[in-house]
Amino acid sequence: MPDREIRQVPKPSVADEAVAQMAAARNLLDAHRPWFGISAGKPGYAVVAFSIFLIALVWGGVTYELDHDRASVIGTAQVNGDNLARAYSEHVLGTMRLLDQMLVRTRGDYENNILTADPVTKMTSISNISASAVILGIVNEHGDLIATNKSSVRIPGFAAEREFFLAHVNGTSDHVHIGKPIHGRLTNTEVIILSRRLSKPDGTFGGAVFVSFDLNYLSGFFSDLTISKNSSFTIFSPDLVVLDMIRGTGRDLSSIGKSVAGTPIEHELAKTPTGHYETVAVTDGIKRLYSYRALPDYPLIVVAGLAQSDILAGFYWRESRLIGVATVLSIFFVLIATYQLRRITQHFQSEQTLRQTQTLLIQSQRVAKLGYLIHDLRTDRVYWSDSLFELRHVPRRGAFTLDEVAKFIEIEDRDRYFAGQKAAFAKRQTFSADVRVRRPDGTVYWEHRVVHPQFDAWGEIICALCVVQDITEWRTSEERERELQRKLMQSQKLEALGTLAGGIAHDLNNTLTPIMALSKITARRLEPGILRTNIETIHAASQQAGDLVKRVLAFSRQDIIEKKPTNLRNAVIEALTLMRATVPTSIALQTRIDEVPPIMSDPSQIQQIVTNLVSNAAQAIGGRLGTITVTLEMICGAGTDRTIHLSVADTGDGMDDATRERIFEPFFTRKEVGRGTGLGLSIVAGIVADHGGRIEVISTPGTGARFDLHFPISEAETSVAA
Q: In which element (H, E) is residue 635 found?
């Protein structure tokens, strides 16, 4: 919304008020110069300069306070908008997941021929939702409606020209399709259609299963919220077409179906899937602060918009009051300027000396990476030295609150630090500690802090002086030394264990060889019967034991592996093809397998990596709904550096730090007895290391895990493969 609509009446700017007060000071000085009893020399000009300085200080403070106040109001509005967008997205996401689960279950029943002659009853039990709110239906490959949870009447050509049907006919993707708002033929209302592809037993197109729901079902809850008439909740499709819009006055049907392509949200979405921006809406011309979130797993964007006129209503009243106070103070400074003529000169001389001293102090602090802060407990204001602003890469400002200062300290160190400081102050002692501090750009560094409490004559503490020093380099070198020691011990342990495992495996392999050979020859010579069956069982068991020996030999790196130019894409696809049958249907297996250059490898080793990682991911998810994502791509670095990136991510239980540090140890496992040997990830680590690669593991409890494998590729390997 334009400024004239927000402020209603024009107001003089803060800068205009300041200039007017400075001019008044100069005029007052000129009018009373004879009364001062001095000539127009330095004292007179000092009074003018000091008066202007005071007035500038007042108006500068007003400007700063108003900017800070406005930023605070906007910041609070951004938080509120983010919370509204989060709640809106969670509501929409929950609805979409519920509807998508209905699609998946119905598709599974249809493709497995579980739907009987009475599909209406079956589909109604699946949806567990009234057919008046949501229509669940199936169309065949010709677009004929063959069943819904509302009626079993067949409608020929029902979906033949519909967007969702054409999207599945022309594509092979298994992803859910979300259509644009249309007029529903079954409900006679504006609806959105969610659909998934149906496949015949031979994998060809077999139609689609869909749910049709009106807009009120998707976001009706938010239409009942008490919000201002200019606030809004909006759902966009990926091409930025409005699927639904709710304002304080109700659902805006005139905006549904319109495109907002080319507006700031398109630019913001290209940078990050979640954020906020400020712009004038193309639908109604009102300026709003928008918070947006792109839904995971579904191509939808939800946006919560708060009108700027509502956000800044209280700010403009405070702005008028501060300008009035600043005007009164400016007049007061002009009146007392006559009594400060001779003191002003001495004051400026003292300030000059102080500034020089402060400059020297700042320079020395900068060289030593030192800074300090003063906490005035009487006003709960914290003041920083200039060097501390530079140390923390924070723009200079007047003062902080204790809560603002505390947020710079990492959460893991915050409680420990303040608890120790409180205990030291209770004993009237100086407190020192090392803490991690996060800069606004996200970098973390170490500070050594020494806090000196200052007491008054009665002993309640009035001030605390904290001297800080950047000790990141020292802590980094110390941690690097500990990490090198840990890796050395781990390497020695793995080497010893590998030698032992290799020796045992070779001996066991020599023992198994005659068993496998003789059992196979004997079984061939026997007639079919119990004896031959028993011999064949012995042969199969010896083969399984032989496979285990091969895994142990691969772990110990004593088995000879023949490397040859290998197409990783084919190897990964073959492994996933075999794994699809073992992954529960409750787990979605998503893949993005790009063409990558061949490397010198053994295809069976690559397949073993994929099999181990996908199996572990499926076991981490268990019987819950979840997703396993496998990605193969090439990453180009600086110059000629190229890396093949293989990633396996899951939505399982995740791991804590202690478990994550041990997962590559041989025979370490969290599985119950009989479900794992603890060698899978050790073998994966050995294979990756043998290829000169590296593994990164990202996981926290409750958020799943992601294994990122990086295989280097050189021009020489490409030439050999070619």
A: strand 626-636
Residues 43 and 136 grouped into a single domain: no
Three state DSSP letters for 569-600: HHHHHHHHHHHCCCCCCCEEEEEEECCCCCEE
- pLDDT tier at 648 (50, 70, 90 boundaries)? very high
* Residue 641 burial by Cβ neighbours in a 10 Å radius (0-12, 13-18, 19+): exposed
Whether residue 571 is found in the same domain as residue 704: yes
Instruction: Report the pLDDT value the prediction gives residue 187, as an integer from 0 to 100.
Output: 66
In a domain, 361, yes or no: no
Residue 197 CA neighbour count, 13 Å, CB half:
15
**Per-residue confidence band for 44, with pLDDT thresholds at 50, 70 and 90:** low
DSSP state of 150: S
- Gap between the Cα atoms of 24 and 38, Å rounded: 20
Tokens of 91: 């509501």
244, 419, 595, 637, 638 from 643: Cα distances, Å: 44, 47, 13, 8, 11
Backbone angles phi, psi at 7, to 5 degrees: -90, -15
The whole-angstrom distance between residue 214's C-alpha and the CA centroid of its chain comes to 32
Q: Quick one: tokens of 589?
A: 């297996």
Q: What is the dihedral of CA 542, 547, 552, 553, to 10 degrees?
A: 100
Amino acid at the residue 378: R
Q: Which of 187, 217, 247 is the last residue of a domain?
A: 217
What is the reported pLDDT for 121? 64
What is the 8-class DSSP label of residue 180?
A: P
Tell whether 273 is covered by a domain: no
In the block, which residue shows the tokens 């400020």?
A: 278
Query: How many independent structural domains does the chain possess?
Result: 5
Q: Starting at the edge strand that comes first in sequence, how are the strands of the sheet with 287-294 ordered?
A: 250-251, 242-247, 232-236, 301-307, 287-294, 274-280
Same domain, 663 and 537: no
pLDDT at 646: 94
Give the best-scoring range by mean pLDDT among 20-34, 56-70, 430-444.
Answer: 430-444
Cα-based distances in Å from 290 to 70, 269, 277, 298, 316? 17, 12, 5, 21, 21
User: Which position has the token pair 């399709």?
Assistant: 177
Note whether 449 and 529 are same-domain residues: no
Confidence of residue 4 (pLDDT cuts 50, 70, 90): very low
Domain of residue 151, CATH code? 3.30.450.20
Contact 435, 425 (CB under 8 A): no
> Is residue 587 located within the same domain as residue 702?
yes
- pLDDT tens-digit readout, 557-601: 545 567 788 899 998 988 888 778 778 889 999 999 999 999 888
Average pLDDT of the chain to the nearest whole number:
78
Residue with the two structure tokens 């093949």: 644
What is the dihedral angle through the alpha carbons of 62, 64, 66, 67, rounded to the nearest 10 degrees? 160
692 — pLDDT class (breaks 50, 70, 90): confident
Domain that holds residue 428: 369-470
Contact status, residue 212 vs residue 137, Cβ threshold 8 Å: yes
Whether 128 and 203 share a structural domain = yes
* Residue written as token pair 């201002």: 228
List, in order, residues 6 or more apart from 307 with CB less than 8 Å away: 1, 228, 230, 231, 286, 287, 288
Do residues 68 and 160 both lie within one domain?
A: no
Q: Are residues 583 and 690 in the same domain?
A: yes
d(CA 506, CA 557): 12
Of 169, 202, 217, the residue at which a domain comes to its end is 217
